[in-house]
Design goal:
The chain is built from 18 helices and 16 strands. The protein has 714 residues and is an alpha+beta fold. Strand 1 and strand 2 (7-8) form a beta hairpin.
């Protein structure tokens, strides 16, 4: 904006708040939501104007709050909700004492279920706390665990409250003298307890498969705060289901069963559980794993209840068992989703048609057909418009179609009624454009103006054709043809991560993988370090398979016509990654156990006979044990935090050192060229772009060269 002859003001509009290529830093340094710019396709009263043109609009419903206000609102809501649950617990106890504990438990369960249902239906947390990344949509709409990580945590914490209330309700003192009835009831109790294993497994499957972004457990350091909180929700889920199972098995104490009868009940419940898993459509591996864990789970619960196990060793044993089960389920589901994703991506890349682009072209055709600007740009006979001018205008017109602008390169052709080219600099004539391309291409969708074909190198090409009148003169009709040719970004262009934010064919996680596309024996695309050994594998038409080597794992697919083969893969990872995941869950579970003991000290969620509370009173031995456990927990947390920070900082330093090395190598090479006395200034100016291009390609990075005045030379 010009204020005076010598004064101007500028507004900087951020494209990205952080470099998406930087894998270890994914923070948002500003309270403004990062998606309010350029991501709203609908017009509003708040336009973003650049060079006199509206290039985007801010959503009208966006509310930017100060960090202090949004945190104050969140803390207030959490405090109110905790107070409400406390009052609800006391009200349930009062109702239980007067009318029976079944009615008190029903009141608490009905109230909590209603609150969760209303939150899921009305989206209360999403509307009130959308300034927090924690409450932004992270799961698919049909997910049973919620729409965001915040909803997932809320659901798990409410489950812990419900199961804690259910756990502290008094047991029935009535003895069951009929052993057959006791055996049947014991089978039912153990079967319900094993159902908690299936529920937790399904919740972890939903957490992985229904995630929009996905959890990459092969790169633990990239989980970030949302990933760690999602794991904390799993720990809370396991605690709630354990309280439910423990309360059920405690009820078998009054059945009067012998040890053999109890073991028989566990065996029958385990077999029934396996049968139900098979009927519900689980794979044999999953059935074996869940039924086996359910059997171990039943025996451990029985031993703990009947042996009155309440020592510190039991707590550690349960932590190890739950951490192992959770880490195994999460890692297995992550591997299955990774395999499924790579297979789907390989099959999509192997097909030449781009359904995403076909949908994007329809509004482009309608836009140009309803506008007379192109007809006026063609100029009347005998004058001709510049092909570059026409192409620049169309590029500006389709810039809002981000996907179209990023992945395809535009060529413009125009012909008069005598089939003569009417654009200066037009590279192809009527025979090549119309007879050689348009006439042989296939119609796309319902529009007669869009067709699909191939260029001379068998690259996919989409074409648009429509009629216009030069200068709106019906006596001078003309035909305009637009060719959109697929163009993969060069593998060395790191800046593509900044501007190419609409993935090819809407494959949202494609940047996580290496991929290659080969057509008729020619390499068409090569991103990353894809394993080229797939070229030697025979595949049937339209088939796909997975290829594993010592260092790489790839999903390979062949197109239906057999001309294109695509491979999508990644580096193989060490089995230690699963150990890292187990360690993180075990640490979170230990902290959760400490918090549960602290809460139980005040609220008495767990019966007093288990002595599961923290009190710095009693005998000297008890006080020494209390402080030893407290100091051990604090030390464990500090060591874990410092270890995480150490590995994160080491990875950042290694990445920075790699960039510094590349920059130094390029600078030293340029110094050698510039100091060579045999090279003149003109010769250096000619050789500089080729030299920089060669070096940047060899080092796999972008290089730009500026003169002392700040002008970009290359």
């Amino acid at each position: 904006k010009e204020l005076a002859a010598t004064q101007k003001t500028y507004t900087l509009i951020p494209l990205q708040y952080t470099h998406p290529h930087h894998q270890l830093i994914r923070t948002n340094p500003t309270p403004i939501k990062s998606e309010i710019l350029f991501h709203n396709a609908e017009k509003s009263d708040i336009p973003v104007i650049l060079d006199g043109k509206e290039i985007g609009w801010l959503p009208e419903d966006s509310v930017v709050e100060s960090p202090l206000m949004k945190w104050l609102k969140l803390v207030s809501w959490v405090s109110y909700f905790a107070l409400f649950l406390r009052i609800l617990s006391q009200l349930g106890d009062a109702v239980g004492k007067k009318f029976g504990y079944v009615w008190g438990a029903a009141l608490v369960m009905l109230t909590c279920s209603t609150l969760l249902y209303l939150n899921a239906s009305l989206g209360f947390t999403a509307q009130q706390f959308n300034q927090f990344p924690l409450f932004k949509p992270a799961f698919q709409a049909n997910s049973m665990i919620g729409q965001s990580i915040g909803d997932w945590l809320v659901n798990c914490l409410v489950l812990v409250f419900l199961m804690g209330y259910f756990h502290h309700t008094p047991l029935s003192n009535r003895e069951i003298k009929n052993s057959s009835v006791g055996l049947i009831l014991s089978v039912l109790n153990h079967l319900l307890a094993m159902f908690s294993v299936g529920i937790s497994a399904e919740a972890m499957r939903e957490l992985v498969f229904k995630s929009r972004q996905g959890f990459d457990f092969d790169r633990i350091l990239l989980l970030g705060t949302p990933g760690i909180l999602a794991l904390a929700g799993i720990v809370a889920l396991m605690v709630g289901l354990f309280l439910f199972s423990h309360r059920l098995i405690k009820g078998t104490l009054h059945f009067g069963l012998s040890r053999n009868q109890r073991f028989t009940a566990i065996g029958i419940a385990s077999a029934t559980f396996a049968l139900l898993l098979a009927v519900s459509g689980n794979t044999p591996v999953q059935i074996t794993w869940l039924a086996g864990f359910g059997l171990i789970y039943g025996f451990m619960l029985d031993a703990m209840v009947h042996w009155q196990g309440n020592s510190f060793g039991w707590a550690i044993l349960w932590l190890v068992l739950f951490s192992f089960f959770s880490s195994s389920q999460l890692y297995r589901n992550s591997s299955l989703k990774d395999q499924e994703t790579r297979m789907n991506y390989a099959r999509s890349l192997a097909e030449d048609r781009d359904t995403v682009l076909a949908e994007k072209l329809l509004p482009v055709v309608k836009q140009f057909q309803s506008s007379s600007a192109l007809g006026k740009m063609l100029k009347p006979w005998p004058f001709k418009a510049e092909a570059t001018e026409m192409r620049d205008y169309i590029n500006r017109s389709v810039f809002s179609q981000n996907y179209l602008f990023q992945h395809y390169r535009l060529s413009v052709f125009a012909f008069d009624k005598d089939n003569q080219p009417i654009l200066l600099g037009q590279s192809l004539g009527y025979e090549q454009v119309v007879l050689g391309n348009w006439a042989t291409a296939k119609q796309v969708s319902e529009s007669e103006n869009i067709r699909f074909g191939y260029d001379s190198e068998d690259n996919p090409r989409y074409m648009i054709q429509w009629k216009v009148n030069r200068m709106d003169d019906p006596e001078q009709p003309a035909s305009i043809y637009l060719f959109f040719d697929l163009n993969h970004p060069a593998p060395t262009k790191a800046y593509s991560h900044l501007f190419f934010n609409s993935p090819l064919k809407d494959l949202q996680q494609l940047t996580r993988y290496d991929f290659s596309i080969v057509k008729n024996g020619k390499l068409k695309a090569d991103q990353g370090l894809a394993n080229m050994s797939f070229l030697g594998n025979e595949l049937n038409l339209g088939a796909f398979k997975e290829i594993r080597t010592n260092q790489h794992i790839d999903a390979v697919a062949k197109s239906a016509d057999g001309q294109t083969v695509a491979a999508v893969g990644r580096l193989t990872v060490s089995w230690l990654k699963q150990v890292y995941l187990f360690s993180i869950i075990f640490t979170l579970a230990s902290l959760c156990l400490f918090l549960l003991a602290l809460i139980n000290t005040w609220i008495n969620v767990i019966p007093s006979e288990y002595a599961f509370h923290l009190k710095a009173s009693g005998s000297l031995a008890r006080r020494i044990h209390f402080w030893n456990v407290t100091l051990l927990a604090i030390a464990f947390g500090i060591v874990g935090y410092l270890t995480y920070q150490h590995f994160t900082q080491s990875a950042n330093k290694a990445e920075k050192s790699d960039y510094d090395f590349k920059v130094t190598a390029i600078l030293n090479n340029l110094k050698g060229k510039a100091l060579d006395a045999t090279i003149s200034d003109d010769s250096l100016r000619r050789r500089l772009p080729a030299t920089l291009n060669e070096m940047s390609a060899s080092l796999g990075m972008d290089v730009h060269f500026f003169d002392p005045k700040g002008n970009m030379v290359y």
